[in-house]
Design goal:
Layout: H1 15-25, E1 38-43, H2 49-62, E2 72-77, H3 85-95, E3 107-112, H4 119-128, E4 134-140, H5 148-151, E5 154-159, H6 168-177, H7 187-196, H8 201-226
Parallel strand pairs: 1-4, 1-5, 2-3, 3-4
Helix pairs in contact: 3-4
């Protein structure tokens, strides 16, 4: 089991949220469009936002006129030292130059945990998002921190699931890849696993692996207990010669009596 490898491995909160990404990824809607140059992925930790952010640039690039196979991507973790006005100004300076990468000429900027930017930096970011030939992909666990003016420049995709059933198809695929029968775990068991993990994808996959190991161990023990014991091959009896101590009379073996007619 591993982290998501493609966009198809992402478990979305709902079909509506998945549809937003599908429209962009398949080029069914023009993007960037009408002043929206960003995609804002927001929700609980461990729900797949960062993984999806990494998958999106190649998909968007492929839909662009003259799009290429190697999008010009920058990924930044917004932490201390990379969360102030100076950091945003450096991005602005880079974007002011024409991209030399082959393809559409669009630069893709991924800002993970964008809410960690200072308020002044977020104000500066709004201006940077007005620049041409740039797409921004943001992730955040704290949507409420972001200003309305910043959010209005983005297509928002929520990752706040409440129904554990959304995970069932993905879990069945993971079980099949592990060679585990679909009947090994009930839907109720898997749904409860998702709820206990609080929809955290990393925790869900870990707990599923633990459940598989436990199930396999239980099955192995059951086979060991119920299997019939192996019968040892019957060995031919070896006659024993009586041991006679010195000075002791030899015991006479009883002789068979006369046969009665």
């Amino acid at each position: 089991m591993s982290a998501p490898q493609t966009i198809n491995d992402i478990v979305f909160e709902s079909l509506a949220e998945a549809r937003k990404i599908s429209l962009i990824a398949n080029g069914e809607i023009e993007f960037p469009y009408a002043g929206k140059t960003g995609v804002l992925l927001h929700g609980e930790p461990g729900t797949g936002k960062t993984a999806l952010a990494a998958f999106m640039p190649p998909l968007i690039e492929a839909c662009q006129p003259n799009g290429g196979n190697t999008p010009d991507v920058q990924k930044h973790q917004c932490t201390v030292g990379k969360n102030g006005v100076e950091f945003i100004q450096s991005l602005q300076k880079q974007l002011s130059h024409i991209s030399v990468s082959p393809g559409s000429g669009i630069r893709y900027i991924i800002l993970d945990e964008v809410d960690n930017l200072t308020p002044q930096a977020r104000t500066q970011l709004k201006s940077v998002m007005e620049m041409v030939d740039a797409v921004f992909i943001f992730t955040t666990n704290n949507l409420h921190v972001l200003e309305a003016a910043l959010r209005s420049r983005c297509i928002e995709v929520s990752f706040n699931p409440t129904n554990p059933k959304i995970w069932l198809p993905r879990l069945r695929v993971l079980l099949a890849k592990q060679g585990v029968s679909a009947s090994s775990f009930s839907d109720a068991f898997l749904e409860n696993l998702v709820l206990v993990a609080k929809f955290d994808a990393r925790e869900i996959i870990f707990q599923l692996k633990m459940a598989i190991i436990q199930q396999q161990a239980t099955t192995a023990n059951s086979v060991a207990v119920t299997a019939p014991p192996t019968m040892p091959q019957q060995q031919q009896a070896i006659p024993m010669t009586p041991i006679v101590m010195a000075g002791q009379p030899v015991a006479q073996q009883p002789q068979p009596g006369p046969t009665t007619p």
